[in-house]
Amino acid sequence: MQKVMFTWWISWLWAWLLWATCVGGSLRASWAAGLTHEAAQEPEVGPGGEIMGEERVGPGMGGSAVQLLGLEGAQHFATQPTPQTAVVGSTVVFPCRVINKVGHLQWTKDGFGLGTERDLFGFSRYAMIGSDDEGDFSLRIQPVLLDDDGLYQCQVSASDGVPGIRSHGARLTVYVPPEPPIVTPARLTATAGVPATVLCQSSGGRPAPEVQWVDESRRESIRAGWTTETQPLEDGKRVKVVSTLTFTPRRAHHNASLTCLISNQALSHPLTSTIEMSVLFSPEVHLKVRPQQVAEGGQATFFCSARANPSLLVYRWYRNDHLLPNDTTSILTLYKISRNLHQKSISCEVSNQVGSSKKTQVLQVLYGPLFRSLPHDVMAEAGTDVTLRCDVDSNPPSSITWHRHGSDKILGTGRELRLRVKPSTAGVYRCVASVRGFPEVEGGLRVLVKGPPTIVSAGEQRGRMGGTVSLECSTVSIPSPIRVTWAYNGRDIDLSDPRYELVQDRQGEGLRNLLVIHDAASHDFGAYNCSVVNEYGVARKQIRLNEERERVPVVVVAGSVAVLALVVVGLSSLFLCNRRHSGGKGDTEV
């Protein structure tokens, strides 16, 4: 029996060698003639891995391509393979159906022939399925492994003058699921406001996995602050990804989690890894005030609370950023509040070992009206519109009414009153501001009509020889004068002369102008001309300076008379006394 088996194997081997030498040699010659020429020319590969162009006919397969394309009955493809993707462990079928097949059909992978038998001896996971009757030679790969990734082509050799053909190249892209991600550190301990770094890595995926970070405290994806590095593994096809997230933890991250998601085309759902976070943070302060609004002179109480980690807290209070050193509890009360504290800030600062936080409340004080600035006069040309303003401060805002002086009729309301200037509207106006529960305030202003100036000084004025003389040229001018000039004897006064001095004082709606003459001489007395110019006209007036004669004061005269009377009385008394003494002596002698 053993001799029979040995003889059978020797016969089979000899037959196979003869077939390989004759038939196989002829077949290889056909493949070489029909396919080698095209193999020498690199096929154009499309973006999906397929070889571009229609069915190829080799010049060495039984005639030129141009001659044979028109022959009826030439073998050709009814169905050609197309690019495919597959996950490791799945099944892939590349279709290939040939009409009028006469040559030998085989599949190639990356240019390497897989054989012409349907079972594809030596490739246990590969098989050509279908039937010869239907010309179906589809290639099935089951199960798909990473090594199956490559470019596949269905080829038919030339035979009996019929040229060989090649299908489009079809690339099989094999996807491999990555390993579950690993996040380090396993638990993050950080301080709010201080940047922290977390790593997420996964190996073995193909294509490179996509990484996504999720902040569970907000339940949203983190879109910034992280980078991903891809590192090829030894097989050159799979990769390892390492994603580095740098972020700044917040209070909300305390006891929250951070998740890394890994996904690629080989996964039906992402793979995840989650870590918990412990965050130290400075106090989160809340501040309330009761009552919300306080009347001037009343009191208000502020309540301060805080959440922090760690929870050992220190309280400080500020008024307008000035520390209140004696207030260190969580409650602050202010007494006898004035309007000066309205819209001022009251702040509570709370500290722990991490840091401090401050919360501020703006104090709302109710108070009556008070002028920020008093109403001021308004001057304008006749026929123009002007706006009168009443700038009053109060809380709540004042109710403002406008009146003409001497009348209680309301001309308007609000901070402004618009009116047209004319002689009939010129005069004094008043605004009245009131707030319920507080005294009202009132302010007045004048509406003046612009026009040429008017000189109101006296035409006759006096001065004393040798003294300092002042000539007055006062004017009513709306607007104020542009220029005031003096002339004497038809010539302008030379103000560069030290004997002259010009003094001006604004008063009301006019100007008081003085021409001062030092050491007045006789030639300084006479008629002067004063000219006043504003943008609306000129006013001129002659002012005569008369010499004032020196008069003896009444007191001096009265004193002199009194002294003279005393002198006369004294002399009379002395005379009478002498006569008496003379008369007495004569009588004695007799």
Structural commentary:
With 590 residues, the chain is mostly beta strands. Helices cover 13% and strands 45% of the residues. It has four helices and 45 strands. Strands 13, 15, 16, 19, 20, 22 and 25 form a seven-stranded mixed β-sheet that branches. Strands 2, 5, 6, 9, 10 and 11 form a six-stranded mixed β-sheet that branches. A five-stranded mixed β-sheet has the order 29-36-35-32-33, with no helix packed on it. Strand 17 and strand 18 form a beta hairpin. Helix 1 (2-21) crosses helix 2. The termini are far apart.
Question: Topology of this protein?
Answer:
Elements: H1 2-21, H2 23-40, H3 65-68, E1 76-79, E2 84-87, E3 92-94, E4 97-99, E5 105-109, E6 112-113, E7 126-129, E8 138-141, E9 150-156, E10 165-166, E11 170-175, E12 182-184, E13 187-191, E14 196-205, E15 210-215, E16 220-221, E17 226-232, E18 239-247, E19 257-263, E20 271-290, E21 293-295, E22 300-309, E23 314-319, E24 322-323, E25 331-334, E26 345-351, E27 356-362, E28 364-373, E29 378-380, E30 385-389, E31 391-395, E32 399-404, E33 412-413, E34 416-420, E35 427-434, E36 441-449, E37 454-455, E38 460-463, E39 469-476, E40 483-488, E41 491-492, E42 500-507, E43 510-517, E44 526-534, E45 537-547, H4 554-589
Parallel strand pairs: 2-11, 13-20, 21-28, 29-36, 38-45
Antiparallel strand pairs: 1-4, 3-8, 5-6, 5-9, 7-8, 9-10, 9-11, 12-14, 14-18, 15-16, 15-19, 17-18, 19-20, 20-22, 22-25, 23-24, 23-26, 26-27, 28-31, 30-34, 32-33, 32-35, 35-36, 37-39, 39-43, 40-41, 40-44, 42-43, 44-45
Helix pairs in contact: 1-2
